[in-house]
User: Fold these one by one.
Assistant:
Number 1:
Amino acid sequence: MAGGSVGFSSEKYKDADASYTYVTIAPNVAYYFMNDFAFGLSVNFSSTSFDGNSTSSTFLGPYLRYYVTNPIFVAVGANFGLDDGAGTAFGASVGYSWFLNSAVAIEPQLFFNSYNNDGDINDSNEFGLSIGVQAFLGRTSGE
């Protein structure tokens, strides 16, 4: 499986009276190692703007996807920041694979991530919606 998603989320910091809005682009690849289970790797590029300031971050990490019932899946994963002070993120999502044909699907997902930034400053939780497109390489109709 190869593809990616574009996400939008809002975030509220635990120790601050501020909210942020994020836009994320996340390409990914995965391999189905058994029926309904895939192990993958994702790269997340995110950009944040708040009060005239903007920052960007890059995360890399593994994830596991399981189809509870075709076409509904759940996924869990971890992401490790590649930028100074980016920290780590752990998350879960639930999504739907809407197949356009036997190999390409549009996938809306609701997700939750918990960020642990280096130094415990601005640790946060994030809830959002992403829309992705996946190509299921080698898939035949009805799988």
Number 2:
Amino acid sequence: MRPKTIADLTASNVADGVQLSWSRPRAYADGSPMTDLGGFVVERADGADPHAAFQHVAQLEVTDRDRFRQIKSFRYLDRDTSVGTPYRYRVVSYTLDRYFSAPSNIASLERATVAEEKHAPLSATPR
């Protein structure tokens, strides 16, 4: 059976690229509980054209199926981005038997420079 479609994909600019985040699908498309999540395919479309084709960016394997505490949310950092370029992302989940979900919601953003967090300089206090 196909996994339920991911509906909460988000994208944000970080210092090293674009950070994607989404929740673990816990059910099949028919609503029954899913226990055989195999992984995710991350896809990206570059540029301003809303009809640009999505390309495979990464495949992430899930290996926590037998753990008592499974990962509840996932992240992927796309480092292969250019400042000023708009991107659209989507994620497809799949089971161990290679049943693929429909593509997730699309998360769009334009890559921007993110300033590194600045800390106040440490100063020694004379005693």
Number 3:
Amino acid sequence: MSPPEVATTLTDAEKTFVSAAFACRILKADGLATSPAVIGMKAADAFANPTISINQLRQTELTCLKVTEWGCF
């Protein structure tokens, strides 16, 4: 069971709030949880496709982030 699931279960069962971060610290202290794998990306010094006029740069929104062994956030 992942730390967010433990936090939700404890919050529902005991009627007291427990954060996922707190559950993660407790589980790590007892050796029951490990840190999720982090895949780092190196920032580039410049854009791959540089802009040539005003308002040409576009943004994107990330709505779902899949974390290995944790789920989708």
Number 4:
Amino acid sequence: MNLKYIAQCVWFIVMAGVFPQFTVYAQFGPPRPEVKSIEVAADGKVTFRILAEKAQAVKLSSSDLPGLFMGTDMKKGDRGIWEVTAGPFGPGSYRYDFNVDGVPRLDPENPATSEANTRSWSLMHLPGSEISDVKNVPHGSVS
């Protein structure tokens, strides 16, 4: 075997033991930044975020949130994370999506979705509604 190849393998194994994150970085590149896509403040304002490092323009749109039907521009921040704060909004469930360079897309960090006649939306729930909040109620059998 080639001595240089053996030395490289040994170096990689030693570095992987000392710095476990080195193996991930060496295989896949730098780690993806964590994104908290929806953050609700106490005053009812909501901050929306999406990671789109190479995007030129990102908008937040909603069929339910007041003032967002035509979309509102988001600002690009550190590490390619786009952000906008809107509201305040009252309790209830709201549909929204992101428009990334002209292409509508669901929130990749939010598994909750809502189907409409012609498209899908991401779904956000703000607590405090008597109608849509989940409540702990007695369970049992009816006889």
